[in-house]
Design a protein that fits this description.
7-stranded parallel β-sheet; alpha/beta; 35 helices; helicase; 3'-5' exonuclease DinG; Rossmann fold; Nucleotidyltransferase, domain 5; 5 domains
Length: 924
């Protein structure tokens, strides 16, 4: 029986090589699943403890004054690691620090076998939302009284280890045997424990009925089946009364349910749109309960009429909320399970055939590939969907996923694309299909249907639908992605199975690999040319995207020479791509004619996929630099810093409304657009024009106000003494930073600051870093602090006093309810910066139509975004806070009144910054 020494350290920082030191050490010895010894002590680090570390651990300089030096405890610590596995939650960190300290004391480095419980948890609990120790402890009901203290963390890590070893023994023998093929590349020495589990599994039939073997892999056994359709006998009005008011309705399934008139009104309006049928625009304010409202209408209509309804959303979080929170609430209202299914594109689902093929080549893996395979092997014994969104692959795991997703299979074969086929089957029998704007848009533009047939759609978060659709009706190409595709193709052309082919195949392979290398070189030259051409052009021709890339609008009138040269370079590049395509076709044909085997079938499938990729590149890039048109906006972006010579090529239709009218509005019976923000100046005119609805179209329009008491819970404050940003931007940024700091004193942090310019955000972030003592507030900046939007939000919420600076994506879809957010600052009214590519072309078109681009386009778009930003503050009936707008145009410009009238009626104060801070303090 193995013995384990579980270790946890608290340190002054992340790097022993940068002179960071240990401040606390905790060690727990476990033998035969029992704790046999514990060791814990503070350590004097011989340097100051940073405020952030003190805030995290509760250990400050005074605490360690009388603590021993590490050299005084080194021998005792060293003896504890005799003949044991060293275990830690991120073992490389703890072991790195330990060995650095032992080296200073003249002791040899520890070379014991190791186990990393982060790595083990990623493999054995693959669907966990987080692998932080505290969150794993909570998820698995492990006691964790003193997080970020060494002994407590070591104790919990020990409990976690034992749980993980038990989970290992629950896996089927086939999975365990395949795990052995990838363990050599992992950090943790898991082989003995896997072999022990195999010995137990070999003589056990426990749980075997839950699995099936497909393509040699153990997979959770699924029985999709055809659910019986629930029965509804009442008319819609009577049924709604029962649902909203009856004791066996929502009151019986949702403990805190409160009847809201607006929710019923929304359900009735949507049902009317579905039955008449006609299109509808429904704005439902925060707190209406719109998800439940439209799901009720969709389910009733679908069940009664046997007609499928598609619900499309913008964010993954809303999809998950619908499926895992709202649908289970409604399911309890019916006599049979309701048939609501989430359906995504093929790229989301795993292909078992392609994964099996990759398992055969595990000896070639790097660390990320080995870890990805281990995670997926265990996940396949648990998943009911095969959807990649359920797990977190390692950093380079996405490249591996690309090889094994169902998208790799050009021909549709159920056995090969098991999970995608089941998702299709479920969707075919579903009453309501939940999908996203991307797949809905792809369905509109594709020759082959991407969704089961449908005639009625509810588009939630509809203010974002046109942005997504615009990208799908246009072009998106980028240098890094193209180079990556060519690199993956070269890897495929070097496959050992391909190399065993006939002489003809070997010749074609050699030609193809040569053509790929030539194509990569041509692409590199094109990228350098575009990069330097844009760099040399005058600043007035360039703008910046919200993530800091330089944008350059392409116009033949001013860029003829650059376009001509780029076109010639593209022709050379595409000639190589066409050569590759022809070679791939020849190789595929040769293999198809040979005796069929599974490896050959996989390779042919991948070759055909790359043939399609080549066709797409030729189609999109071949026409990109052709004659310009006012029907289309084209622009190129380059990195302001970072990856040199990278370019991104975009085009979007200017008249998207005409395309949506043709592809969506006139081809479907009923489209319901809904969102919390659809109107501007109490009118649907802007959204009607955007989505392609004409004045003569009969459309249901409904505004359902929020039930929240905004007048009691929110205040709008605007300073009258800020400098003019156009006259002195630096002074304006300084005033913004001072206001953030002053307000943070009142709100104790809990501030979200929204910018329209990434450049301004960055300058404010670094100015605040100089102004604010790090002991007072944590400052997080989008694009500066590491992590995704969700990660930044979680970090912001994790600290008592923190400030979050965000741009573009933080204006909407971010929920920070309760006391976590007390102040929302809007730095500038969210007009698109002048010169943005699509905006510039659309303005020209609007002018030609004899209209006012500002009033008819720029202003309505900014108002909707402003309303979305405002909506970040009040997310529940008990939320309370201040909206602080630094842009005086909201009070002084003629159009400012439209912004104020677009939000709920709340008290507005226009005063000096000093007076506003005093009033904020008094009110809060």
């Amino acid at each position: 029986m193995a013995a384990f020494a579980i270790v946890d350290l608290e340190t002054t920082g992340n790097s022993s090589s940068k002179q960071d030191r240990i401040i606390e050490i905790g060690i727990v010895l476990i033998k035969e699943k029992k704790i046999v010894k514990e060791f814990s002590t503070l350590v004097y680090p011989e340097r100051e403890i940073p405020p952030f570390i003190s805030s995290l651990t509760g250990i400050d300089d005074e605490d360690v004054i009388g603590a021993p030096l590490f050299s005084e405890i080194a021998q005792e610590v060293y003896r504890l690691f005799n003949d044991v596995y060293i275990v830690a939650h991120n073992v490389e960190f703890d072991l790195g620090f330990l060995n650095a300290e032992l080296k200073k004391c003249g002791l040899p480095a520890l070379t014991n076998p190791i186990i990393d419980t982060v790595e083990m948890a990623r493999i054995l609990i693959p669907s966990s939302e987080s692998f932080k120790l505290g969150q794993l402890a909570e998820q698995m009901n492990l006691g964790h009284d003193r997080p970020h203290r060494a002994l407590s963390d070591a104790q919990v890590t020990g409990e976690l280890l034992l749980c993980l070893l038990d989970r290992l023994k629950e896996l089927p023998e086939r999975t365990l045997t395949q795990l052995l093929t990838v363990t050599e590349k992992l950090k943790s020495q898991m082989r003995p424990f896997i072999e022990e589990a195999i010995d137990q599994a070999r003589y056990s039939v426990k749980g075997i009925q839950h699995y099936t073997i497909l393509h040699g892999i153990a997979v959770r056994k699924l029985t999709p089946g055809k659910k019986e359709k629930p029965a509804i006998t009442e008319d819609f009005s009577g049924w709604l009364t029962h649902i909203f008011e009856g004791e066996k309705g929502l009151k019986g399934t949702i403990p805190s349910f409160e009847t809201r008139a607006g929710q019923r009104e929304m359900s009735e309006s949507i049902y009317r749109a579905l039955t008449e049928p006609q299109h509808a625009l429904i704005e439902a304010g925060a707190g209406t309960g719109k998800s439940i409202a439209y799901l009720l209408s969709a389910l009733y209509y679908s069940i009664k009429n046997n007609r499928r309804i598609v619900v499309s959303t913008y964010t993954t979080s809303l999809q998950n909320q619908l499926l895992h929170e709202e649908v289970p609430k409604l399911e309890r209202l019916f006599d049979e399970p309701i048939r609501v299914e989430l359906f995504k594109g093929k790229a989301h689902y795993i292909s078992l055939a392609h994964f099996s093929y990759e398992l055969e080549n595990s000896h070639l893996d790097n660390y990320d590939e080995a870890l990805a395979k281990a995670i997926i092997l265990v996940w396949l014994t648990q998943t009911y969907t095969g959807d990649i969104e359920e797990i977190q692959l390692p950093s380079n795991g996405q490249q591996f996923w690309h090889k094994i997703s169902a998208e790799q299979s050009v021909k549709h074969q159920k056995d090969e694309n098991y999970f995608y086929a089941i998702a299709e089957e479920k969707a075919a029998f579903a009453d309501v299909i939940i999908t996203n704007h991307s797949l809905l848009s792809l369905d509109l533009i594709s020759d082959q249907p991407q969704l089961p047939s449908y005639e009625k759609v509810i588009i939630d978060e509809a203010h974002q639908f046109t942005n997504v659709a615009s990208r799908y009706f246009g072009v998106q190409l980028n240098y890094k992605e193209l180079q990556s595709q060519l690199t993956h193709l070269n890897d495929l052309l070097s496959d050992r199975f391909l190399s065993n082919g006939s002489t003809t195949i070997k010749t074609k392979l050699e030609q193809s690999r040569g053509a790929v290398e030539q194509a990569k070189e041509e692409l590199s030259q094109l990228s350098k040319f575009i990069y330097h051409s844009i760099k040399r052009n005058r600043p007035s021709s360039k703008t910046k995207s919200d993530i800091g890339r330089v944008q350059y609008t392409l116009l033949h009138s001013k860029d003829a020479a650059m376009i001509s040269t780029a076109s010639e370079m593209i022709e050379r590049f595409l000639s190589k791509i066409l050569l590759i395509k022809r070679s791939i076709r020849t190789i595929s044909d040769q293999f198809i004619a040979s005796p069929p085997t599974e490896p050959i079938a996989i390779l042919v499938s991948r070759l055909e996929q790359y043939e399609n990729v080549c066709l797409t590149i030729v189609e999109q890039l071949g026409k990109y630099f052709k004659e310009e048109s006012l029907e289309e906006a084209k622009w190129v972006e380059i990195e302001g810093s970072g990856h040199q010579h990278s370019f991104y090529m975009f085009s979007e239709p200017v008249n998207l409304d005409e395309l949506l009218r043709k592809k969506l509005l006139t081809s479907k019976q009923s489209i319901v657009f809904t969102s919390a923000t659809l109107t501007t100046a109490q009118s649907f005119e802007f959204i009607r024009k955007t989505v392609g609805l004409k004045k003569e179209d009969k459309v249901i329009e409904k505004v359902i106000p929020s039930p929240y008491k905004f007048d009691q819970n929110a205040r709008l404050m605007i300073p009258n003494d800020f400098p003019n940003v156009r006259e002195d931007q630096e002074e304006f940024i300084y005033s913004v930073s001072e206001a953030i700091y002053s307000l943070s004193q009142v709100t104790k942090g809990r501030m979200l600051v929204l910018f329209t310019s990434y450049d301004m955000l960055k300058k404010t972030y670094y100015l605040l870093k100089e102004m604010i003592n790090p002991e007072e507030y944590m400052i997080f900046g989008q694009g500066i602090s590491s992590g995704s939007r969700d990660r930044l939000k979680k970090n912001f919420q994790a600290f008592d006093q923190s400030i979050l600076l965000g741009t573009s994506s933080f204006w909407e879809g971010v929920d920070i309810p309760g006391d976590d957010l007390s102040c929302l600052m809007i730095v500038r009214l969210p007009f698109q910066p002048p010169g943005q590519p699509v905006q510039s072309i659309r303005e020209q078109v609007i002018k030609k139509e004899g209209k006012n681009p500002f009033m008819d386009y720029s202003l309505p778009e900014a108002i909707i975004r402003f309303r979305q930003g405002f909506g970040r503050l009040i997310r529940s009936s008990t939320d309370r806070g201040i909206v602080f707008v630094c842009d005086q145009r909201i009070m002084e410009a003629r159009y400012g009144k439209y912004f104020i009238s677009s939000i709920p009626d709340i008290p507005v104060t226009y005063d000096s910054t000093t007076n506003l801070i005093k009033q904020a303090q008094k009110w809060l």
